[in-house]
């Protein structure tokens, strides 16, 4: 049981890092696609927080959607394991699923914050 728990934690950390890199890349692409609009906003005096907020929202939405997909995948795997094997795992408690979605939300926001901050340092 201890090996399984350790493996699960390591896998979770690796997947979290991969998710952060992917989300940060997606936000960077979004930033560079809107680079001219951002430059115009900077010229007319928009604050960094005004420029940053749409990208933070985008990162949050990506995180939430990713968390929802992960919850769906967990329930699908449990269903299939119950149906086709003699092992019958139970579904995780709702609190765990909500924590997963919340953690995914945080990963999205943090990744977006890192991407936008690095862009604003380069350009601003």
UniProtKB/TrEMBL annotation:
<keyword id="KW-0472">Membrane</keyword>
<feature type="domain" description="ABC3 transporter permease C-terminal">
    <location>
        <begin position="10"/>
        <end position="121"/>
    </location>
</feature>
<feature type="transmembrane region" description="Helical">
    <location>
        <begin position="6"/>
        <end position="26"/>
    </location>
</feature>
<dbReference type="GO" id="GO:0005886">
    <property type="term" value="C:plasma membrane"/>
</dbReference>
<keyword id="KW-0812">Transmembrane</keyword>
<feature type="transmembrane region" description="Helical">
    <location>
        <begin position="94"/>
        <end position="116"/>
    </location>
</feature>
<dbReference type="Pfam" id="PF02687">
    <property type="entry name" value="FtsX"/>
</dbReference>
<dbReference type="InterPro" id="IPR004513">
    <property type="entry name" value="FtsX"/>
</dbReference>
<feature type="transmembrane region" description="Helical">
    <location>
        <begin position="61"/>
        <end position="82"/>
    </location>
</feature>
<keyword id="KW-1133">Transmembrane helix</keyword>
<keyword id="KW-1003">Cell membrane</keyword>
<dbReference type="GO" id="GO:0051301">
    <property type="term" value="P:cell division"/>
</dbReference>
<dbReference type="InterPro" id="IPR003838">
    <property type="entry name" value="ABC3_permease_C"/>
</dbReference>
<protein>
    <recommendedName>
        <fullName>ABC3 transporter permease C-terminal domain-containing protein</fullName>
    </recommendedName>
</protein>
